[in-house]
Specification:
The protein has 351 residues and is an alpha+beta fold. Helices cover 29% and strands 26% of the residues. The chain folds into two domains: 5-59 and 85-145 and 298-333, no CATH class; 170-297 and 336-345, no CATH class.
Amino acid sequence: MAPSALTLAFDAQLSTTLFNYRKTIEDNISKSSAFMYQLMKLDPSGYQKVQVSGDRMMMPLMYELGQADSYSGYDVLSTTPIDGMTACFWDWCQASVPIAISSREEKLNRGEAQIANLLEGKTKQAELGIQDFFNKRVLLGAGGTSITSAYSSVMNGSSFVDPLAKIVAYDPTTSTSVGNINQLTYSWWQNKTASQTGSTYKAFLIELRKLRMKTGRGPGGFPNLHVVDEDTYALYEGALAAAHQNPSYQKADIPFDNIAFYGKPVTADEYVPDVQGGSETQSTSSGTWWMLNTQFFGFKVDTETDFAPSPFVKPENQDAKVAHILWFGGFGCSNRRKQGVMGGIDTTMTA
């Protein structure tokens, strides 16, 4: 049976609405966290739209440098090839959020203006849902006590992207494959990590400086974004104030409240987990500080499925129509050595 004119009107209006709204959805998802904003808006390769190919997302990486040497006049130049070029691989993942319209809603919104208003509200609802999904799953993974595991759907068993707690791990020495490379076997693939042990503001700041120095070793520079839990943010702010340092509140290039650390933004996120305790439940005695060099992170997203709408379909057992906003892409890191995390931060210290 041919679809009704009203169904076609909804399909056409949905396509028009989402065609105009896709950029807004992407913009608002980027604003769900400072990390997402940095990748999607500020880093040139942070959110690439590509023609997907291959069974996994490939990111090239280098773990050895070219062997430069001096020479004079007619000296023989080295022609020794350099090893150390390889690639990491990350699973392609998919996500969707439904836009459902019941027969009752359809009948109560027959006019063109009413259809547009209804779809705008439904689209906004869907956008908020997928925005929250991205932020939670990138920072918390499966959540609970599985923050280093990718989220797995309870409905169909599919997995989403590897979370930050796995890519920048509190313990990067376990025999775990990250990006299809065993981090225990290859020490050059391990991120930097530290446990906060000092009992004073001064000791805490020294520990932060030491971790930053470790992440800055070698080419690629220092971290350009620091993501912490809310208690750690307050602790750092208090430590600066106690040292009579201007907290240097900045907007930087991100639309989030932040305090500078070596001129780079420190921003709090409610979904930052307790990496030492391995739990999404934050602890006042076990705060988390991620030091991230975001030039080595990135999303690759299918150009045809970057928050793209599907047509409305009527389920057999419901008097309703359902369409979906679809996303297809991958997420990974090409240099874990430039990333750092500090766990076990005692956020109750007062001096």
